[in-house]
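Morning - NAP inputs below, output right after.
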Amino acid sequence: MERTSDYKVIVIGSGPAGCTAALYLARANFVPLVLEGIQPGGQLTITTEVENYPGFPDGILGPKLMDLMRQQAERFGAIFKMEQVEKVELRSHPFVITTDSREYEAQAVIIASGASAKQIGLPSEKELMGFGVSACATCDGFFFKGKEIVVVGGGDSAMEEATFLTKFASKVTIIHRREEMRASKIMQERAMKNEKISFLFNSTIDEIIGTKEGGVTAIKVRNVMSGEVSEMKTQGVFVAIGHTPNTAPYAGQLELDDKGYLVLPHRHSTKTNIEGVFACGDVVDHIYRQAITAAGSGCMAALDCERWLAHERITERWDLPKGEEDRV
Ligand code: NAP
């Protein structure tokens, strides 16, 4: 596999954390390479309106916000490549990052690989994913015009997805395994006020019934209090039950917590347990998980990285990537 050693800093991930880290590094003349992954822009590209990102009093669409962040980093020289990281070697220096198309060597790495939507874990969910089962209302909502559908989950994602889906569906039922919801009050109230949305509490899905040809036709719902299982007609299932951190390539090298999130062992620092490797955004954060906190930690990672490179005097023995000299 072809190996490139032109980049001093590689940023893995292109959500708010990765883009902000790239912006700061680019403005410091580092010409960072951003490996965007298979979902450039990260989770915000599959969300709708973002109303809580400061600076946008009227709200902004998630994909638009990410496009602007990317443009801002590119303006100062950051390079974005749509490649997925498959393997890393962080135990020797320079670090080696292997993507689906090539190998890269880098002096420093910032991991901002985010988190991915969780699945319920049913065989029928897996089989019918894309055939009536979805984890992305923004992507698939359009296909459920005039249909009756269900959304699984009791967090902000479930409320947001359900509310968005009422633009298309004739009826949306939120199925949640408990009676209390984790979602913020404002999002709960918005969903509750929506006439097209109803709630089914203390319930889980045992099976999704349907075929790839005909889509989803029904679900088997279990009442967790009584144990009773009943069949409910539905034409779509949207799963919105949280996220899993994207840390598979780092296991065994970087410290992970019991949920698989990267651990930052130093207080007030984005340094990982390996010198020269930093992490930021949702891949380290299972508490706040907001675009703005991700962006803030991306800035911190860039500054920590810059200081580390200066401390190691790596900046002094570095030439700009070949063909990129005119970028800065
Ligand atoms: P979350 O807050 O972790 O909620 C996940 C929900 O799914 C919980 O209600 C959980 O039930 C349920 N769940 C988890 N595993 C399940 C399973 N196997 N079967 C059935 N139900 C299951 O995740 P989220 O809603 O994705 O939100 C994540 C973060 O993003 C939050 O901080 C949220 O505020 C933020 N967010 C913000 C916005 C916005 O402001 N526009 C939109 C989306 C997300 P339990 O409660 O019983 O555990």
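Note: The chain is about 25% helix and 25% strand.

O.
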